[in-house]
């Protein structure tokens, strides 16, 4: 867009934009910085007293480590199911003609169901039909949270599949399955990978639903929530900071890969 | 071939129905049942006790204040999202644009819990802001209203849900032909005139969708209030947690039904005005 905002207006708009970014990023990055401070009191560390001691102390926190394992297992299965189901949902979307926007709505609406209500409803059903809380009950809750995102990512990746490709293959006698396997699937594979990773992260970081659905073994966010409210310690800063940074790195690498794929 | 179509549609539909629709439908049904102290569960005697409970102990005021908070947060996020989206779409060069888009995507996939918690370290009595203010001798004692207050909760909302307002706006800005703003300039309109008479009206749809997304997310949120709210602070999701502490299922279900109707009502009304599927580059029909 060719626009001349003028210096003052440009400055004003950038100031507001940077302010908004600071609101999102400054505190978690401050938390990460604090986690390298040797002192028990939260504060920015000086360059001379940077330490990894709180990170070194993490393996001894067995409750947190067990919770982390539980979260990783749940995130893996959530991501797996979410990706496969969303792929089917996206394929259905293109099969449907009249009911497309209805189908889209049905797949995306679960995102807006409040976590507490979804968690409570599922846990009431599980308890009273004799299903014990476990990793799989959390997966059930997380699936509804992750699927809308996975669905949108996969749906977007279908823009790489030009209808002419499929028509050409059809003319050359390829079956529908063959068209899917040899044309559609390779073209949307980056989308499937992104969907899997995003669903994994959504599950790994989800708290409200897991709060209702996890059994004796807490997930990491549920364990963290308890610790945060009973006097936070630098170890909490360390694990929170590590999870936050790791999530960022993973998202950035997915976006970079997608960007490179688009450039090609 | 209808068989193939059924094979594709059935699994995702079954999952959404089984773990999404059925539980919520049961919540609606169960909200009319009676609390049974013998089993700590409910029995199928028709009762409106749950709904009557909403009118007790000021619970309806929590619902009302949740809606006010959602409205306020949605307004705040929309106001901030506009300059941010404009900076991303119009003012940033390609590299900065990529960076900003990444920075807007990341929050969806990081922990709301950790991000809300980190504000405690900034806003607390010994937090970064109070320490700085005192070191600069601007204040002599820590400001107490910074943390565990509505102020903190609203900051938490913006930090958590701002990206939900940015993306719909970006998508609707991308649909505006670039020549339009330039034409307005050529015809002598100043920046703000072109901004308010051309850009803003053409992005109403994205603005509205973003407002709606934030409203709905805040209405169903709990983490920000749990981490940053004061002693008396509440929001519907936290109230449901409290009600469930004494296993008052009918009341918890009744509150849930009121919230679900509100949220889905808003989303469906929004969808009628502006097809959500159109947002994602799909045929808006």
From TrEMBL, chain A:
Record-annotated membrane-spanning stretches: 12-36, 68-90, 102-126, 138-161, 182-204, 235-255
Subcellular localization, as worded in the UniProt entry: Cell membrane
CC annotations in GO: plasma membrane
UniProt keyword annotation of Membrane present: yes
Chief location bin: membrane
Record keywords: Cell membrane, Membrane, Transmembrane, Transmembrane helix, Transport
InterPro entries from the UniProt entry: Bact_Polyamine_Transport, MetI-like, MetI-like_sf
Pfam family, one: BPD_transp_1
Family: Belongs to the binding-protein-dependent transport system permease family. CysTW subfamily.
Protein name as annotated: Polyamine ABC transporter
Automatic annotation (TrEMBL), chain B:
Localization in the cell: Cell membrane
Gene Ontology BP, a term: transmembrane transport
Entry keyword Cell membrane: yes
Family: Belongs to the binding-protein-dependent transport system permease family. CysTW subfamily.
GO (cellular component) term, any one: plasma membrane
Protein name as annotated: Spermidine/putrescine ABC transporter
PROSITE patterns referenced in this protein's UniProt entry, alphabetically: ABC_TM1 (PS50928)
Transmembrane segments: 7-33, 60-84, 96-114, 151-171, 191-219, 251-274
Membrane topology: Multi-pass membrane protein
Family matches, as Gene3D superfamilies: MetI-like
InterPro entries from the UniProt entry: MetI-like, MetI-like_sf
Entry keyword set: Cell membrane, Membrane, Transmembrane, Transmembrane helix, Transport
Organism: Xaviernesmea rhizosphaerae
